[in-house]
Amino acid sequence: MVDTLTLVLAAVLGFMLAGLGAKSRGLLPDWIRLSGPIVTLHTDRGKAFLDWLARPKRFWRAWGNLGVGVALVVMAGSFVLVLLGGLQAIANPQPTQLTQPRNVLAIPGVNDFLPLSAAPEIVAALLVGLVVHEGGHGLLSRVEDIEVDSMGLALFTFIPVGAFVEPDDEQRRQSSRGAQTRMFAAGVTNNFAVAIVAFALLFGPVAGSIAVVSGAPIAGALPGGAAAQGGVDRGDVITSVDGTPVANASEFEALLDETDRRTVSIALESGETATVDRSLTVVGAAPTAPFDINTTITEVNGTAVYTEPGLNAALRDREVATLASSTGETVTTPIGAYTNVSAPSDPGPSPLADASGLGGEAFIITAIDGERVLDSDTLGAILDETSAGQSVSVVGYHEGERRSFDVELADHPREDTGFIGVTIQPGTTGMSVDDFGIEGYPAEFFLTAIGGGSGDGLNGIQRAAFTISLPFAAVTLPSIDQPFPGFVGIYENFYVVGDGPLAFLGTGPLLLFGTLLFWIAWINVILGQFNCVPAFPLDGGHILRTSTQAVVSRLPLSDKHAATRAVTVTIGLAMLASLLATIFAPQLLG
């Protein structure tokens, strides 16, 4: 099946060919200019409005001076972050979802963190960000008496990727350094100001007027899994199990854990019901786990099992068991917590490696001090009750051989417990299983993160910083496996109007408004921060040049122009190299 990126590239190529054909035949009007896949729309309209808006020049110059200070601080931070990101990518080139080249493209559906379901809201937010950014440049140009030749919008085919204001180059060069600096800083200043307003509205009346629907929200159903076969799909909300109501995902999971019945009846928020025949599907597996992902486990020692409670009951008293799959494959394997023993050369202590000599190898732990270890959860619970310096007896299996060791635990580097020196694979014997086959959606977590629900004690700045990370939540937050796309699409099913001041808007308009505010805030922060990177042709590069000129002009140097050029070119090349390394080094060196 052709992936989304290939389809997008084919569409871009088709657009370029069609555009070249129209351009060669003179079919494009003067106000449309085409350069490959980049289209720019030019207009003289709006100049009179800029002239009117620029009349309180003293106010706008003060605003510009404030923006210069903000831009310089963000520039310094951006320089450090980009440089450290490039160095980290070279020193530890591990490919991740964050460093995939496609995620550089701000195209919903292609970029993993810009969901297609929120494409209209993302494009609208991008337009807002671009207009206020370039509008700031145009406004300060007129405040400093620099003529604006034209203005307009830049598109990547049909997708807005930039707006532009074209100040008269000669007048700009003849203006003072302060005037130029204020003009270049005005765009990012406006972006940050719009982000602050959007955050204030989102964190206040909007989030305060939204509530999470009662039930267990479903972000997805495992293809071929029990829920999917029973007719449960993404976007559904489970409200009861066998007639017992559930208020949230935790209550739903608790009900399933309490029963080993294979067949359960569930009710959905839509009013429909479904019957689900539970089956044990492997949803995560270590490299040497008994079964691979998507395998269905059907028997333990010849006894049929269908549920997680049933599987745990069958394995609890067995250090070794024979498992069978739906394909007829059988595997006899130790049953315990699958761990990788830290090598002695790894940073920090490795008590189990010191005692066993198994550094860097897999070891299935089945008991500690005589207490049965069934899976990763029981191992974690036992270790949480230990302390540094405590001696424990560890029993387990290495390459099928039962072995035991006396281990003196070390200080845990992050917690007030003992440290054994292993990394733990989730599940039993390296396998995570699911008997229902759904992926929950953390609706309550996301609403709390943006200030709704019961709140989480974050102040405004902390909440804004955390909110910016929400589209990346699936790869940056260990307990979250879903990004936050806003409240639209299927996610609208997971929220309802609460008791806040904007409840009168109704569910649809309120959730749409909240999604727009989220993406407006997010995109304006990203635009402002990116444009503060001190490299040409970004605003940060121009501000770096004028600021360097201001400093160099006060130094006893014979060739001040050469000194300015040396500083700006060196920093610009360092930024370019770091950005390229961050994007491509993990793919090339990993």
Write up what this structure looks like.
Keywords: Hydrolase, Membrane, Metalloprotease, Protease, Transmembrane, Transmembrane helix. The chain has about 600 residues and is an alpha+beta fold. Among the domains are: about 1-30; about 35-115 and about 125-190 and about 520-590, no CATH class; about 285-430, PDZ domain (Pdz3 Domain), CATH 2.30.42. The chain contains 17 helices and 26 strands. The strands form six sheets. Strands 6, 7, 8, 9, 10 and 25 form a six-stranded antiparallel β-sheet that branches. Strands 11, 12, 13, 14, 15 and 24 form a six-stranded antiparallel β-sheet that branches. Strands 16, 17, 18, 19, 20 and 23 form a six-stranded antiparallel β-sheet that branches. Helix 6 (about 175-205) runs antiparallel to helix 15 (about 505-530). The mean pLDDT is about 85.
- Helix-strand makeup class: alpha+beta
What integer is the average pLDDT?
85
**Tally of DSSP helical segments:** 17
Strand content: 15-25%
Rounded to the nearest angstrom, the radius of gyration is 30 Å
Inertia-based shape: globular
How would a crystallographer describe the biggest sheet?
6 strands, antiparallel
Number of strands: 26
